[in-house]
Amino acid sequence: MERQPVKNDISSYIIQSQEEEIKRIALELHEGVGQTLYSLYTGMQFIGNAVEQVEMKGYVSDMAELLEKTIQEIRLLAVELHPPTLTTLGLLPAMKSYLKLYTSTYGIEVELETSGKEIPLEERQRITLFRVCQEALANIARYADTVKAEMTFAWQFDHLSIIIKDNGKGFNIDKGWHQSTGLAAMKERMHLIGGEWHLSSKIGEGTVVELYLPFI
């Protein structure tokens, strides 16, 4: 029989490898593809200023506008994959930055409340908590049918608790939620950093995801 610690080590290694690849892709999108498209955009602007024919000037302007929109979409995607603030500033600033992107993308306003003094977390913990929160918010956008949600960070000297709540349509929690790969991944990620994950939901009343991370 396979020992649980070995299984956990394998799962942790796979997740870490995935995160490293996601970080690489995000950096390439922002610094590589994004910068190349920006160079094309400035070139199109230069051409547009030099062209005298009205019809051609309008065409070049439309192309420049399309490039600008594409650049913005790529930058937003890069931030969603791996926000730079997660590494430089920590979990809470990264979450605040992501919520702005989330609201502009899905039209769902998330009220964020915090209590206590933020405690610096290990990189693995920061990434895990961010990914689990990200998945919970994605589920709200996909299934909750609501325009509002709440997120609470409660910092204590010995633990951090995070609650993500919506007042959407909810679902019957007894009908095999564990079969959802997204929900199962959230639980597994929290388990791998020594944390806990709890889910509750009622039809017509919304869904609550609770995260608990002890500071050992």
From TrEMBL:
<dbReference type="Pfam" id="PF07730">
    <property type="entry name" value="HisKA_3"/>
</dbReference>
<feature type="domain" description="Histidine kinase">
    <location>
        <begin position="28"/>
        <end position="216"/>
    </location>
</feature>
<dbReference type="GO" id="GO:0046983">
    <property type="term" value="F:protein dimerization activity"/>
</dbReference>
<dbReference type="GO" id="GO:0005524">
    <property type="term" value="F:ATP binding"/>
</dbReference>
<dbReference type="InterPro" id="IPR050482">
    <property type="entry name" value="Sensor_HK_TwoCompSys"/>
</dbReference>
<protein>
    <recommendedName>
        <fullName>histidine kinase</fullName>
        <ecNumber>2.7.13.3</ecNumber>
    </recommendedName>
</protein>
<dbReference type="InterPro" id="IPR003594">
    <property type="entry name" value="HATPase_dom"/>
</dbReference>
<keyword id="KW-0547">Nucleotide-binding</keyword>
<dbReference type="GO" id="GO:0000155">
    <property type="term" value="F:phosphorelay sensor kinase activity"/>
</dbReference>
<dbReference type="GO" id="GO:0016020">
    <property type="term" value="C:membrane"/>
</dbReference>
<keyword id="KW-0067">ATP-binding</keyword>
<keyword id="KW-0597">Phosphoprotein</keyword>
<dbReference type="InterPro" id="IPR005467">
    <property type="entry name" value="His_kinase_dom"/>
</dbReference>
<dbReference type="InterPro" id="IPR036890">
    <property type="entry name" value="HATPase_C_sf"/>
</dbReference>
<dbReference type="InterPro" id="IPR011712">
    <property type="entry name" value="Sig_transdc_His_kin_sub3_dim/P"/>
</dbReference>
<keyword id="KW-0808">Transferase</keyword>
<keyword id="KW-0902">Two-component regulatory system</keyword>
<dbReference type="Pfam" id="PF02518">
    <property type="entry name" value="HATPase_c"/>
</dbReference>
<keyword id="KW-0418">Kinase</keyword>
